[in-house]
Amino acid sequence: MEDCIAALEQAFTAYRQELEEFARTSKPTDGILGFGRCLKDDPCHDRFDGRVKEAVDSVCAASPTPEDAEKIVSLLLRSDPTGWPTAAQWMLRAIERHTLPLIPFLAPEAAAAFQKEYAARYKRWERMPKQQEVLKALKQRAGAEK
Predict the structure, then answer these.
(1) Which of 123, 73, 117, 120 has the alpha carbon at shortest distance from 95?
(2) What average pLDDT does this structure show over 107-117?
(3) Is residue 27 packed enough to be buried (19+ CB in 10 Å), middle (13-18) or exposed (0-12)?
(4) pLDDT score of 59 more than 60
């Protein structure tokens, strides 16, 4: 399980490196009037999403313990977008959907804590549809053994 967690952490590191490489090699005029390269269209976002999905799928296939599931959900839901480019901040929010298959493995108390924190972080009207799903799944899991 530790290798899956390491793969997930490596996905974040590789993504950060790709973003830095893009910034180093881009020209000041890139993206202006639709010409040149633009970070929001770079395939690094899809690669990052694929790496995260692959790591989560391998964790779910191994039937993680509640503690392992909690570590991974924490890593995905608590990633701090501060200091990341705007295009990457959206991707960090988008990958939160990969917690959905892990939520059933969480202990109900952990799900309740994540639910409270997650609901406080995003205002209801700011949540994307998949974020609504994550919040609903956390709420259901939190109430599972009451």
Answers:
(1) 73
(2) 95
(3) exposed
(4) yes
Distance of alpha carbon 45 from alpha carbon 75, whole angstroms? 18
CA 53 distance to own-chain centroid: 9
Query: With bands split at pLDDT 50, 70 and 90, how would you rate the model's confidence at 62?
Result: confident
- The whole-angstrom separation of Cα 2 and Cα 5 is 5
Residue 134 phi, psi dihedral angles, 5° rounding: -60, -45
Residue 85 to residues 17, 51, 55, 91, 131: CA-CA distances in angstroms? 12, 19, 24, 10, 21
Which two tokens mark 93? 């929010």
Average pLDDT over residues 14-32: 80
DSSP code, position 103: G
Which tokens go with 50?
């694929």
Residues 91 and 45: beta-carbon distance below 8 Å: yes
How far, in whole angstroms, is CA 139 from its chain's centroid?
19
Q: Which two tokens stand for residue 39?
A: 């970070």
